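>> received
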Amino acid sequence: MKLKGLKILYLIGEGFEDLEFYVPLMRLREEGAEVVVAGAKANQTYIGKNGLQGKSEVSFEDLNPADFDALVIPGGWAPDKLRRSDTVKKMTRWFYENHKIVAMICHAGLVGISAGIVRGHEATGSEGIKDDLLNAGATWRNEAAFRSGNIVWGRVVADIPDFCRELVTALEEYRQQVSKNE
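>> returned
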């Protein structure tokens, strides 16, 4: 239970990548983190790009980012829609600026681009957003998963185990840092 006591905000939207949503979600819960799933509307069912369903518990508008230790954004088609929400962009930027963990896999980097947090960072994701990341001022790194500052990056579905390991390690280190500062 490495993450017991941490509270993670987890975004969902229509067309989320099924495995990039469910596998890290289960991994975080397995380690004892409290994970809250947020969507445009509370108690809304969303369909993943491969047909699995996921449900939001709260809406973006009804939460306070300060109540959370980290933000996780799965990939799929959802990030292209999520990035259009001013609330999602502000929330993502808030997590980043407050030195909390922001984790993005595959196409989730689109949200980071629109939130203005990728400039100057090494980044990865689906090859389909490589040019977007470069144009936003990031440096492309074709690796499964890594951290750049307080951002945890994951490349694609096949890299989910590496992404999960990097995310859990980042959250453990975040908790240790917070404990030292208290």
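>> The two ends are 21 Å apart (CA to CA).
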